[in-house]
Amino acid sequence: MSLMNLDVFLHRLQYDPDKVKPLDWETDWDDAPLPYKLYRSLPMFPLSREVPATLEGRETTGVPILRDIGHFLYYVFGLTQLTQSVMERDTSEEPGGVLQMCRRFVPSGGGLYPSELYLYLKLGELPAGLYHYDAAHHRLALLREGDFDDYLAKSLGNRRDTNGCFGAAFVSTVYWKNFYKYNNFAYRLQGLDAGILIGQLLEIAKRFGFSSSVHFQFLDQAVNHLLGLSEQEESVYAVIPLSTEPAIRWMEIGNEDEDTVSASELCRELLPVRHDHYVRSRRIADYPMLLRMSEASLLDSSQMFREIRKDEQAIPDQALALPLPPVDRLSYDLAMVCRNRFSPETEFVWKPIGLSQLAALLREAMASFSYHNDLDGPQERTEPRVCLYGCFYGVDDVPDGAYRYDGAAHALQPVCLGDHRQRMQEGMSLPNINLFQVPLSFHVAGKRGFFQSQLGKRGYRIQQMEAGMLVHRLLLAASALGMGGRPLLGFDANSSDAFYGTASRDETGLIFIPVGPYRHRLRLAGSLSR
């Protein structure tokens, strides 16, 4: 398969995904990689498995201790449950087998978890330095020892006061971990997976009293060099400083030329390190399109960092908007909601939805999405770059049809009334969900140009990450309300864009999430904590 133009590649990822991978691509299930990275021959620091059953009522006092970090990481990205369920089968076939898997609190496309989590920690109980979170063994692997405050600050363009932080998290993508199944379509999933993990990390950080700031822009080569990552295998997608102060201070930039930092210069400040890790796959295929996208997205100078100003949009006709009843933010135990979160398929069951229930779901998803990041600069953005559209059926006092949610006005903007379930069902690439059993069908949408005019090719993966962050907030809110949600990419974006009328706002649907009541699946589940 010849390499295509990168703009064509991104367009096909969104609107014609079957054309981004070879027709003869077959997944070698017997040579699958592990869903977690295993480092070898490094100092290891075990973390406590005596994890609290609730995250409510936590007391936060000063710099966290190692025990706190262990609990934090368990809820962010740990292996939390071992489940066994009977695989569904055609009645004409042999009896179905037993599916056994380790569950985490965050979903992942195909359960493959292409993301990895690293930390820079400055705690008294272990050496200051860079660590990898070994989810399989719930421990930290020491990658590089030392104080890297100045190096990290420079890699972020000297825009955050990292000296006031007890550490930072790094969310990376390991290309092969889901390329082996999805081929080039893995690139779209990798951004969404990273975003879902970031969303979980930010929500858990709030419960631990940690303030945070997400940096999508940093000197890639310098950060990967710091962690000792091979850029042919893996690359960091986001850097998230963490502090126990109320907020992480934004630094004023002085003379732009004097403050300019280049990745190559910064890399020379540290000797390279390389570590041995186990993948399990015996044969790893090439993924040139993913490497080309990664290379085209690289930032090698802090002069390339940008802020995105709020877009000027036409004000919708508020007379047509359907105001939703005022509702308070949901109050719930995040630990319980994470344990109960479920992704239904055939388990969706039809039940009517109350207007206040829909209002609470929408308000919580969008209100919890607000976060500090480098694209907005010192001021937190009031209008998010991704939004929610939805097709609703059987909701009290809401005519069946397609709507756009206006978070600022807490209202639904009708875009196409009527029943679109058959059209959406026909647009699904797999018939794994009966949409006639689903009262709420959401699409997270964003700008059609993927912010390429401001952020270049990096804009695509940033948009996918923000979409993943909003998806996860929607899933948590649904779980808190006793419902389930199933994120899907197997939908026809052209069709959904047509009945939502997204073109008038220069938006497009990025991911599809059916949400509704469900019956519990028969399965055995055992906790992996004590």
Strands, count: 19
Distance between the termini: 50 Å
Residues in helix, %: 25-40%
Instruction: Please describe the biggest sheet, giving its number of strands, its sense, and whether it closes into a barrel.
Output: 7 strands, antiparallel
* SS strand fraction: 15-25%
Structural class label: alpha+beta
Across the major sheet, the strand order is 2-7-6-5-8-10-9
**Low-pLDDT residue intervals, each spanning 5 or more residues:** none
Report the principal-axis shape: globular
Q: What Rg do the Cα atoms give?
A: 23 Å
Q: Taking all residues together, what is the mean pLDDT?
A: 91
Q: How many helical elements?
A: 15
List the helices and strands and how they pair.
Blueprint: H1 6-15, E1 38-40, E2 44-46, H2 66-77, E3 81-86, E4 98-103, E5 115-121, E6 129-134, E7 139-145, H3 149-155, E8 167-174, H4 176-182, H5 186-207, E9 211-212, H6 220-227, E10 234-243, H7 256-259, H8 263-267, E11 276-278, H9 288-297, E12 322-323, H10 334-340, H11 355-369, E13 387-392, E14 401-406, E15 411-417, H12 421-426, E16 440-447, H13 452-455, H14 458-480, E17 484-485, H15 493-500, E18 507-516, E19 523-527
Antiparallel strand pairs: 1-11, 2-7, 3-4, 3-19, 5-6, 5-8, 6-7, 8-10, 9-10, 12-15, 13-14, 13-16, 14-15, 16-18, 17-18
Descriptive keywords:
530 residues; alpha+beta; 7-stranded antiparallel sheet; 28% helix; globular
Quick overview:
By secondary structure, the protein is α+β, with helices and mostly antiparallel strands. 28% of the residues lie in helices and 20% in strands.
